[in-house]
Amino acid sequence: MNYFVTGIDTDSGKTLVSAILCEALKADYWKPVQAGFPRDADTVKSLTSESVKIFPEAYTLNTPASPHAAAAIDGVTIELAKFVAPDTQNDLVIEGAGGCLVPLNDTNFVIDIAPEVADAVILVADLYLGSINHTLLTVEALQKRELPVKGIIFNGKSNPESERIILHHSGLPCLLRITPEETINHETVKRYAERLKENWNA
């Protein structure tokens, strides 16, 4: 299975979640579009087991900005047809760039990559004032595109009422809750991977 990890905003925690998913599922990793450095692929590599294979990006852009803007600065145009999932016998975790409706070009958004390369979407929602609205709007965008969503992963200081109402209105299961950590390393990722496995097929 190929899983597309998207978030409700740029700093939702997609890279950490991708590392946890790779560790839990013994999956490989691919970031189709990297805008700016350091590369998220390098972060995932540092946080996961050596067995996790990291595939090269389809587009590596120099500026930390929306992909369409970063591509313009680099003098390239991102084409949806260029996104082809790497060939692997393992599950594949595919990390998006920014939120769902971040533009790739004048026509396509990041979420338009998902149906080309993935079987299901995993939504990462960081918890902040306004995150209920942003999460439910993102869910609507996914539903409008009829994309299957495996579930939601909450990231940040626990807010039970926000989490409850998001799950209630979205109808999606919670796959994992990630709380603030003083240190993020391989041991942290392994600990959350074990929790994720408990909920994965619940």
UniProtKB/TrEMBL annotation:
<comment type="subunit">
    <text>Homodimer.</text>
</comment>
<keyword id="KW-0067">ATP-binding</keyword>
<feature type="binding site">
    <location>
        <position position="40"/>
    </location>
    <ligand>
        <name>ATP</name>
    </ligand>
</feature>
<keyword id="KW-0093">Biotin biosynthesis</keyword>
<dbReference type="GO" id="GO:0004141">
    <property type="term" value="F:dethiobiotin synthase activity"/>
</dbReference>
<comment type="similarity">
    <text>Belongs to the dethiobiotin synthetase family.</text>
</comment>
<dbReference type="InterPro" id="IPR004472">
    <property type="entry name" value="DTB_synth_BioD"/>
</dbReference>
<feature type="binding site">
    <location>
        <begin position="95"/>
        <end position="98"/>
    </location>
    <ligand>
        <name>ATP</name>
    </ligand>
</feature>
<keyword id="KW-0479">Metal-binding</keyword>
<keyword id="KW-0460">Magnesium</keyword>
<dbReference type="Pfam" id="PF13500">
    <property type="entry name" value="AAA_26"/>
</dbReference>
<keyword id="KW-0547">Nucleotide-binding</keyword>
<comment type="pathway">
    <text>Cofactor biosynthesis; biotin biosynthesis; biotin from 7,8-diaminononanoate: step 1/2.</text>
</comment>
<comment type="function">
    <text>Catalyzes a mechanistically unusual reaction, the ATP-dependent insertion of CO2 between the N7 and N8 nitrogen atoms of 7,8-diaminopelargonic acid (DAPA, also called 7,8-diammoniononanoate) to form a ureido ring.</text>
</comment>
<feature type="active site">
    <location>
        <position position="31"/>
    </location>
</feature>
<protein>
    <recommendedName>
        <fullName>ATP-dependent dethiobiotin synthetase BioD</fullName>
        <ecNumber>6.3.3.3</ecNumber>
    </recommendedName>
</protein>
<feature type="binding site">
    <location>
        <position position="40"/>
    </location>
    <ligand>
        <name>Mg(2+)</name>
    </ligand>
</feature>
<keyword id="KW-0963">Cytoplasm</keyword>
<keyword id="KW-0436">Ligase</keyword>
<feature type="binding site">
    <location>
        <position position="15"/>
    </location>
    <ligand>
        <name>Mg(2+)</name>
    </ligand>
</feature>
<feature type="binding site">
    <location>
        <position position="181"/>
    </location>
    <ligand>
        <name>ATP</name>
    </ligand>
</feature>
<dbReference type="InterPro" id="IPR027417">
    <property type="entry name" value="P-loop_NTPase"/>
</dbReference>
<feature type="binding site">
    <location>
        <begin position="11"/>
        <end position="16"/>
    </location>
    <ligand>
        <name>ATP</name>
    </ligand>
</feature>
<feature type="binding site">
    <location>
        <position position="95"/>
    </location>
    <ligand>
        <name>Mg(2+)</name>
    </ligand>
</feature>
